[in-house]
Amino acid sequence: MPPFPSAVVIREVGLRDGLQSIQTILSTQQKIEWIAAAHAAGQREIEVGSFVPARLLPQLADTAELVAYAKTLPDLRVSVLVPNLKGAERAIDSRADLMLVPLSASHAHSLANLRKTPDEVVAEVARMRAARDAAGSQTLIEGGIGTAFGCTIQGAVDQSEVLRCMQALLDAGADRVSIADTVGYASPAAVRDLFEKARRIAGERFWCGHFHDTRGLALANVYAALGTGVARFDATLAGIGGCPHAPGASGNASSEDLAFMLADMGIDTGIDIEQLLALRARVAQWLPNETLRGTLWLAGLPKTFQQRAIQTAIA
Amino acid sequence: MPPFPSAVVIREVGLRDGLQSIQTILSTQQKIEWIAAAHAAGQREIEVGSFVPARLLPQLADTAELVAYAKTLPDLRVSVLVPNLKGAERAIDSRADLMLVPLSASHAHSLANLRKTPDEVVAEVARMRAARDAAGSQTLIEGGIGTAFGCTIQGAVDQSEVLRCMQALLDAGADRVSIADTVGYASPAAVRDLFEKARRIAGERFWCGHFHDTRGLALANVYAALGTGVARFDATLAGIGGCPHAPGASGNASSEDLAFMLADMGIDTGIDIEQLLALRARVAQWLPNETLRGTLWLAGLPKTFQQRAIQTAIA
């Protein structure tokens, strides 16, 4: 096991993966407050929304506005999700720093959720790359391989298929690739094994891990992934989120719990945990009818816990 | 990191650490049903109760009866907790296979909870050892070092003090030692570090890890501990439990979630997870007013998950 990374980025995806999975619709002003407070707490990468048709996800219809606001904040990487070329064009126009293109390694989940096969997504990424380059845009393209450990429709997903998709995404022009346990099928040994292989394929372009807490293993899976040198993880404030195709699935790794685990391990995240907990309390007030998760908000920080001095934010 | 152990024992402590922390009092008959079903599901080590004065913990007053019943089941290691020499004498009389003596590495917690200093507990262990040997008894003595990562009264606990107590317990005649994060202060990096050092002191006599899920890290902590070669962990069905001196603290590692994590890692626990989930549903009916925890009961096993053939139970 290599040494743990000295710094880790927690990418806040609550405004996208969280809000798309719940009933409550936050106002644009509330989302802007959330982004501002997350940035003030030290978060340096935020997925602010998704460029999907507003009729499909009305709760994310203000994504362009949120990108425009978030781009005014210093040292913040502004991400969006894009399902197709049309969304990528909007992301490029918005000047988002990064656009994540989801690909489902499970064919069954891919057809149900994206209405495309994995290889059709790869072909779309090639078109996005051409469009990005033609526009002279700096927007990074991240190919996000979901259901990488299995899904509720198909069950197990072959590791070889995940790695094949990863290579295909890189060949098609993705700048980054990431691996997501979309519905909470991963366990730490499987994470360690797959992430080690993915690192050998993609090196530093293997960008991010994304875990759900469906079976209580999100943080254990992050810990296993840390040992493979990956230093960026998606998480959502209060663990909100889920997946419409995963009945019984619970939310994402909780940003505040993850920030605590990393801080207690001596790993710099740039995040002030007390501020993040204060933001959680505020967002919880906006979501009185939703299931919120996480444990730190209830237990509090350990007595005499002292966060090490926060280092320079990680690029 | 050494390879993971091929087999791990989950010691069920729900009948002691769980039931002592909740309001509901189960009948002896219910507890016997629980023990029988846990044994039928493949659990091979169960802490059935505690030899403390019945006026202090009336819910555990039937411990001797439970030991007598559990001793009739084949291949089951029957454990009890004993706070002092008097309890140890009762454990020896009961013919329990193992008695766990709690020691708090936090002096403040030790005085509040046990009304003894750690060194007074060590001296009591020496008296227990003498009594055990004088009786010609086979009951193993396990010194369980609690609040090993900190506590809510004192805050941080020095690693050196934990290791000093461990050496003192071994010197006093404890057959086994274990480490408990009584109130949920551990994080995986701290676990790995302390457990590696403990293994160097106690070798195979370092017997067991005990984690609470106060900050969502119980399973991540087990995973970190597995890498140090420890192959036995306490857990409670439905994660019930807590600590009277830890406000806001949540329960133990959940037996069923832990059994799933280990099974998915290819580690043999001897446990049939479906049977354990059925037992959880039954116990949940007995505890309608208690906070139960864990995630697997809600999410279910992953589709196409196949538990590897259960090997011979681990001695």
UniProtKB/TrEMBL annotation, chains A, B:
Transmembrane segments: none annotated. InterPro entries: AIPM/Hcit_synth_CS, Aldolase_TIM, HMGL, PYR_CT. Keywords: Lyase, Metal-binding, Transferase. The lineage of its organism: Bacteria, Pseudomonadati, Pseudomonadota, Betaproteobacteria, Burkholderiales. One of its GO terms (biological process) is L-leucine catabolic process. PANTHER family: HYDROXYMETHYLGLUTARYL-COA LYASE. The keyword Cell wall biogenesis/degradation does not apply. This is Hydroxymethylglutaryl-CoA lyase. One of its GO terms (molecular function) is acyltransferase activity, acyl groups converted into alkyl on transfer. Belongs to the HMG-CoA lyase family. Pfam families: HMGL-like (PF00682). SUPFAM superfamilies: Aldolase (SSF51569). Residues 8-277 form the Pyruvate carboxyltransferase domain. The keyword Transcription regulation does not apply.
